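=== How it folds ===
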Amino acid sequence: MGHRVIAALALSLVLAGPAPPPPELEPARDALRRHDYGRAAGLLQPLAAGGNAEAAYQLAVLYLPRSNDVGLPPDAPRACRLLTQAANAANAKAAYSLASQVDQGVCKDSGRSAAEWLALATGGGHPTTRGLNADTPPAKTEDPATLLKRAAHDGDLKRLEALLATTPATVTNADRRSALHEAADGQQAGAARLLIASGADVNAKDAAGDTPLLVAARRGAATVIDALLEGKADPNVADSRGGTPLMLAVAALSPPSVTLLLAHGADVGARNGQGLAALDLAERAGKVPAATSIAAALKARGATGVAHAKVAREVKGNDLFSGWTPLMIAAERGDLPGLRAALEKGADANANDVRGLSALVVAARGGHAPEVEALLAAGAKVDQKTGDGDTALGAAVRRSQLAAAKVLLAHKADPNAVQARAALPLTLAAQEGQLELVAALLAAGAKAAAADGRGRNALMAAAEHNRPLIVSALLAAGAMPDDKDTGGRTALSIAAEGGANGAAVALLEAGATEVADRDGMTPLAFAAQRGDGDLVARLLKAGAPLEARTRTGNTPLLLAAGAGRVEIVKQLVAAKANLEARNQLGNTALLAAVVGRQAETAKALIGLGADQRIRNSASMTAQDLAKQVGDPALAALFGKK
C-alpha cells in the first residue's frame, strides 16, 4: 500500500475500524467526521501519549507523508513513531501500515522489516492480510508517476535515473503535478536538472495552476530556480492569485532567488491579485536584513510599489493597507512624525484591524523601536494580543527584532506570555538562534525551564536547531537538561536525533545524562542509528550504556547494524558492545544487518566474530534470511551451504 492509497483511505480507516471505538475516542472521531483535523489531533495526542494504541494509530494516519488530503502537514518521523508505538501494542492496522511504510523506505528505523510487521498484522487478524504469506512484503501498488515523483522529491538520483529509463519525465497523475514539481518542492536541484535533461516540461502547470518555478520560488529554493531558469522556465508566469516567481521569492525572503529571477528578466512592475508589487511585499517584511537587501535590489531595477501612494488613498481601500488607520500605516513604515501626528489628532493607540493587528504589533514586528516607544507612551497596551494570539513582544521575537523587543520588555511586556500556536517567546528566540534576545528575555524574567503544551522548552528548541551558545545560556539560567517533552525526549535526545553535535556537546559538558524516550531510544541509540561516530564517541566517554534497549529490544549496535552503519558497528564492538545481543524477534546484529539488506555491514560483523549459526525467533539463520530477502550481495556473502 503506497502513499497515494493511504491518502485515499486514511479517513475511512480511522472512522470505520472493525471494532466499536473506545468511548474516549468518540470526540476525536466526531472531529474527523467534520474534517476538523487540528481538533482531532489535539484530542488524540494525550490519549496516544497515555498508551492508547488506537489513538496512536489514528494520529499517525493524520501525519503520514503526502497524506495532505487529511488536512495536516506531513510529519514522517512522528507518524513512524506513532505507528511503531501502536503496532507494538498489538494494533494490527498499525502493523499493516508500518509494513507498507518500511517497504517504501519511509519508516526506515522501525526496528523490524516489512515482512516482520506484516506477520504481526496477520497474527493480529488484519483482514487485508488474511491468506497472505507473512514472509512476503506488501505488494507495491504505486503507479510509475507516483514512484517518479517520490524519487524526485527525495532527491534519490540513482532511483530517479533508473525510473526514467522506463518512465517519461512528463508523466503525471490526476493532480497533473509532475516529478519536476516535486523536485522543486523538495528543493532538489540535482533531481530537477536530471528531469529537465530527460525531457521534463519546465513550464507545465499542475491542477492548482503552479509551474515548477512557482513551487521553487515559494520555497525560496535558489538552486532549483537556477536549474529551471537555465531550462528556459518562464520567469513571469503567475499563479492563481497573480503571484509571480519574483513575488513568491520576495515573500520567502530569499535574496539569492530574487537575484536569479531579476537576472533572467523578472518583471518588477507586475501586480498580483491584490494589486501589490514585489517591492510592496519586501517593504511589508519590515527591517529584516533579507528584506532590506531585496528591497534595495528591486529599487535598483526601478521598482515602485503601492506603498508609495498617498496615505489618504491607502486608507480608502488600497489592498496593501486595507482596513488600516493612518496610525497603523505610520507604524508599519517606521514613520515617527506621521505616527505622532496621528496620535495628536486623537488616534486610538489600541485600535485593531480585522485580524486583531494593532499599531504596536505592526511597529514591533517591523523593528521600529522609536515608534514602539511612542505608542506605549500614548497608552498602547503592551500585552494586547492579535487575533492569532501573538503579543507585540511575540511578533518582535518572531522577526528577531532585538531593539523593539528591548523597548517592550522595558515597559514590562510579559516575557512568559503564551503566543500563537502555544509558543513561548524564549522558545521562539532560542530556535531562531537569537542569543541577545534570549539574554534580554531571561533578564526580564523569562522562565528558562518553561514548556509549551507539548512539553517543549527553549532548551529543546536550541538543541534541535543546534544553538550551543544558547544551550549554555539557558542551562546557566536554570534550564534542566533532563526535562522531557511529551514524547519522553530530553534536549540531548533531540540533539542526537537531529545531528546537532554542537548542542549535544554543550549539554554533555553540563552533565546531561542518557535518558530513554517513550520508545526506549537513548541519545546513543539515535547517534548510532544515524551513523554519527563523533557523537557516539562523546556519549561513550560520558558513560552512555552500551546495552540500553528500545521497546522492541534493540541495542545501539542492533540499530547501527540494521541501518548499515559499518564504522559505528566497529566502534561499538571495540567498546565491548555485546555482539550477540538479541531483540524481541531474536535477531542479533548480524541478523538485523541481513534483514536490512546491509551486505557490507554483515560482512564487517562476520569479520568481527559474529556467530552465523544463531537462529532468530522464527528459527532462521543469517543465511536463511539472506536467501529470503533476495539481495545478490548478501547471497554472494553467505554462498551456498
